């Protein structure tokens, strides 16, 4: 179980003004729509518009620059059949899915934009080392009507992406390392790294051991409790979906090395606490209550359109961990697809809660923190600007996910733990996807984080880097920050928007989507065995080009493999699996049930097919058995009575190319002597009732007939 915690820095107003007044920039501006359009109303939620445009462009002039935001509708994070239950919301007067847009600024491929165009521009964008946040100006004198237009006065703020001091925000209060299984899996990455020490590319280091790139759809239940409804009122659904849009966009970044799609299939608002889960300040108990409650609410079949793979609860309750009440989120690790435990609890702390959501979902996907020793042993000391960093000051916009996070989620999915994510929901509608800072300006961001009445600290904001807001402590005016940046899309200058803590030209945030394509196959790597039939792998990268700006990740086979070193090993009388178990002799798992001289032997009976390629060994002379390694060495037979061999933890058919159907001879063995020789050759390879000979670098499997006498094959 992991906690996400908060650290609040409070300083005297005068002190803060002296420290950072010079780096804050903000300007009033009027976004102008510059695409060819016939619409006179830019509110996008009005019923008078039969269909919002799929593409739209705005120009914002501020800070001596022109920012052209090229936007496209993007609502892929909301399932078309998603439903909302609970209190009636005024915002349901229109389909909020048409609000959300994403794109680029000034056609810069490194920029980004995430905006809502409903009731003005709300959200953020990043461009040229700056983060920008834009929102409608709130001065009542500016507007003559209650509804804001996208082409009316807006406030644009920016800040530079300078290195920030301080300790940042502690994200998870539990300083836990990865599970032993994760650590052992990373050991395989470490050995592969050492074997190819001359390879210096990060992408190649982090994309080992992959089979097929298959789209995953995380069908999500989103729940908001009564405290959320009371605080956000009519804007609740739009606000929560904005958080989910930001989280979904993070999971579409190519640095995660997998096609992950976060899709909301159901949205619930709990207005009667007696009908919802019990929410208290005890984060662990709230998580348990919510997990139990959502399990009862879920459908029994994954085929049902409202079945969810994971559930997320948003609350304004002040969550507390074991020793502090700075907790912002909690989730169990590695529980995706577990109907009872695949859930998270998020304390709403303003727009940065989107990062909390992505972080906690990372734990559900089995990701530990980046600073654990297992990650450092394989990938070196990682920077603290990735999503799974235990502290967060800013997000690396070019690589929000670390190589360790990408490796672990890949291992998790390739091991079959994410199979519930393979079913695709109904094709999403073309729903708007805009940056949160467009929908929620800087003042509203302060109120969301620090309460009603909180405002941006005057003349002291470093654009986009940290959100500083006013408040009072012991009756004294203070400026305070949670160390999170301004929301993406917040205006930060003339034609500038924030994006991941950087103030960028608006055109950098509106570039088009680019779908990824496979590069060329690499060469085959070393053979897993020196004799007896091993396996060697070759891989390819999704880098020709890399996906960009929310484009699709490559689909298809990522790793291919073939047999190698088929010469039989010297006959030791032991199977290869026996030798692997034997390597653990004397390892008693630090339990008094086993002696220091324990001898390990393979366990075959009672093993399910999905576990055949795990190294499950039994303490000889006892009934105790354990998984000593999550995977046997490639080339190990799946079981004594199987013709398949294990490749990267999966049982594969043992044909010429390993994954093809094996060639089985229908001819009886002519002589006892020939049978014995064939049996010896095969027993040296797999120790099972089949016999094997090598034929043109291909396994040929032969089952002896009942008339073939004197063939001694070991009973298992």
TrEMBL record:
PROSITE patterns: ADAM_MEPRO, TSP1. Binds 1 zinc ion per subunit. Keywords: Calcium, Disulfide bond, Extracellular matrix, Glycoprotein, Hydrolase, Metal-binding, Metalloprotease, Protease, Repeat, Secreted, Signal, Zinc. One of its GO terms (cellular component) is extracellular matrix. InterPro entries: ADAM_Cys-rich, ADAMTS/ADAMTS-like, ADAMTS_ADAMTS-like, ADAMTS_CR_2, MetalloPept_cat_dom_sf, Peptidase_M12B, Peptidase_M12B_N, TSP1_rpt. GO terms for molecular function: metal ion binding; metalloendopeptidase activity. Its main location: secreted. This is Peptidase M12B domain-containing protein. It comes from Ameiurus melas (Black bullhead). The lineage of its organism: Eukaryota, Metazoa, Chordata, Craniata, Vertebrata.
